Amino acid sequence: MVGIVSAGIGGGQAVAPPIANHLIINFGWRTSYFIMGIIVLLAIVATAQFLKRDPSQIGLLPDGADREVQDCLEAEPTGLSLREAMHTMQLWILLIVYFCFGFFALATSVHIIPHTTDLGISAASAAAILSAIGGLSIIGRIGMGSAADRIGTKRILTVSFILTTAMLFWLFFIKELWMFYVFAAVFGFAWGGAIALQSPVSAESFGMKAHGAILGASVFGFSLGGSIGPLLAGYMFDVIGNYQLAFVVFAILSLLSIILTLLLKPAGSTDSIKTV
Length: 276
Fold this sequence. Notes:
Elements: H1 2-27, H2 29-48, H3 67-73, H4 82-86, H5 89-118, H6 123-151, H7 153-170, H8 177-196, H9 198-206, H10 211-240, H11 244-262
Helix pairs in contact: 1-2, 1-6, 1-8, 5-6, 5-9, 5-10, 5-11, 6-7, 6-8, 7-8, 7-11, 9-10
């Protein structure tokens, strides 16, 4: 379910780059920013009017549920509070995992177009590569989320980071357009999976007692990495003149994410409640 909901992010990334490229060509980047901002504002405000907190607000139960099941769902959730979670190694491991992920994922998204155009590929094709990453992330979010329900969140999250690591190392050897499309397909699929699993892995690690707050902390780690990564990658490019060092950093952080993910423990296990 999380994968289906988060697929909208991938859909936006798939659609926005070619639209932005078309607007910039015809109106310039300043006017294009204004146009896209108005579109986003109107779309969010309009669709938000249809949201409901839960089915009970309109006198319904979740599909397939009866009153007995609903009573179970409304029982007091178990797990750790945010304060308790902050005193465990597990929370800090999770924050570092998603900090690393935000760093290399968003930096790659920002800099893949200038890197591609530096190799002589057209801006339109570069925008299509970014769209492909977003489009394949939709499949990754739904597919990896579904697989996690059957196989386990930790295993699928590990697979996601293995794929991103392989693709980031492969960036060193990519020269042709078709190779970038292969990169976009695999990287986008894996990226989408890791995003979709952010909420489930938080719930498995700490329970549902303070899931919103703990998920918010995890998202903060992702956002912090995402704010630093593109800036630092751009600085490395300015100093060195290419993205080779940046790609090394991205691949190392993705590899570190694999290792740290393997250290995550479910809520209630002895290791998950050790204090720091």
